[in-house]
Write a structure and sequence with these properties.
Helix 2 links the parallel strand 2 (about 30-35) and strand 3 (about 55-60). The longest helix is centred in the middle third of the chain and has 29 residues, at about 105-130. A seven-stranded parallel beta sheet has the order 3-2-1-4-5-6-7, with helices on both faces. The protein starts with 6 loop residues before the first strand and ends in an 11-residue tail after the last strand. The mean pLDDT is about 95. The chain is α/β, with parallel strands linked by helices. Helices cover about 45% and strands about 15% of the residues. Keywords: Oxidoreductase. It holds the Pfam family adh_short_C2. Belongs to the short-chain dehydrogenases/reductases (SDR) family.
């Protein structure tokens, strides 16, 4: 197991891609901190799936759009698990709105969770590693929309474009500390955030025509790439985005 004796904090890991990442890292031998807004049934299901693999696991509730809660999340993770070696900034939200109709509250929520949170979580995590004199891994769950425009989701695309440059900048600053920083950019994945799409057969069929692989991604497709980036095999990879989209970006067009 490539991640034996490692501890990973995965934000937004009570469902979807985040849960898939947490479980895959546990399969690789890591102990896991599950994070979500509240300790609900979904959180308990994530805990049970990791615990069933024989790994240590805890849940810490925190809204990653709030800087103080980001700091507390890192502190409590270290206090409960003894250390942190891997940070996966997975939590994310999106809001559908035409640019001319978008509201400040929606913009703030999207940018706070998708960009502000990863910034200050990475900062707190890297400070911990510097104090310990150890390297580590920061992996952000971005999106193909760090490159690809998506009408009616401008705030979301802006947050993911910002996440790309955040990753590239801090990868340079943190490399001397032995900390790698990378993004994983999923395309269309079967998760709760895409439930509306999956319930619209005509719209889904149109999207699938743009995906050479002929299917939506699944959480395990993304989780496997995160596990690779967290492993010793990727110790010389930093400052880059690995796209996991079934070929979606090759020639995408809105239908």
């Amino acid at each position: 197991m490539r991640l034996q004796n490692q501890v990973a904090l995965v934000t937004g890991s009570t469902q979807g891609i985040g849960r898939g990442i947490a479980v895959r890292l546990a399969e690789e031998g890591a102990d896991i901190v599950i994070n979500g807004r509240e300790n609900d049934e979904q959180a308990r299901e994530s805990l049970e799936q990791v615990r069933a693999l024989g790994r240590r696991v805890c849940f810490i509730a925190a809204d990653v759009g709030d800087v103080e809660q980001c700091h507390r999340l890192v502190r409590e993770s270290i206090a409960q698990m003894g250390q942190l070696d891997i940070l996966v900034n997975n939590a994310g939200v999106q809001r559908h709105a035409a640019f001319l109709d978008a509201q400040a509250d929606d913009y703030d929520q999207v940018l706070n969770v998708n960009l502000r949170g990863p910034f200050f979580l990475a900062q707190a995590f890297a400070r911990h590693l510097r104090e310990q004199g150890r390297g580590g891994r920061i992996i952000n769950n971005s999106s193909v929309h760090e490159e690809l425009p998506h009408p009616n989701f401008t705030a979301y695309c802006a947050s993911k474009g910002g996440l790309k440059m955040l990753m590239r900048n801090i990868a340079i600053e943190l490399a001397p500390l032995g900390i790698t920083v990378n993004n994983v950019a999923p395309g269309a994945v079967e998760t709760p955030i895409n439930r509306e799409l999956m319930n619209q057969p005509e719209k889904l069929a149109s999207l699938l025509q743009n995906i050479p692989a002929g299917r939506l991604g699944r959480p395990h497709d993304v989780a496997g790439v995160v596990a690779f980036l967290a492993s010793p095999d990727a110790e010389y990879i930093t400052g880059t985005t690995l796209v996991v989209d079934g070929g979606l970006l090759w020639n995408y067009s809105e239908q």
